[in-house]
Amino acid sequence: MFCPQCGTSQSDExxxxxxxxxxxxxxxxxxxxxxxxxxxxxxxxxxxxxxxxGAEREKRDEELKRQRGITPEYQSHKEIKAGVITTSVGxxxxxxxxxxxxxxxxGAHIPNDxxxxxxxxxxxxxxxxxxxxxxxxxxxxxxxxxxxxxxxxFEKELQRQSLTPADTSEFAPSPSSVTEHxxxxxxxxxxxxx
Length: 194
Hints:
The chain is mainly α. 64% of the residues lie in helices and 0% in strands.
């Protein structure tokens, strides 16, 4: 028997490896009491994920979200919460920068041209404020649970109305391929030219 830890060959009677002290008895027990191998399921591998189409991947992701309890209502609530937090941070940054820059201007006796720039630095807080407002609007209006339910119903209706795949067994097989026919035509035209 080979030791699974260090790879040295050991006699079958030993309970522990002479080289590294690995438990050979436990390895023997695991090998003898092993259950028969289950059939390998390729659909649970990364290869299967790679071969999924966009629609199948979206469907699988939606199913995983549903299993985890991530409903459209939860997502909308989370987006509204993020919007409130981001808007609040933006307003706080704007207020802080306004007060802080006014203090620097007054306390440090900064020249007027530099003071003009520093007094307007509070505008930096407007960026996260607008991002937060965008998240709020998206959570309240765009991704509302009602809209999500309407979109899901619309997608189901589209799938129901979609065309079924064609049955190609109804076509008669052609006597020759396109390339054979083209090759014959070229050979015939070459023979006529000569």
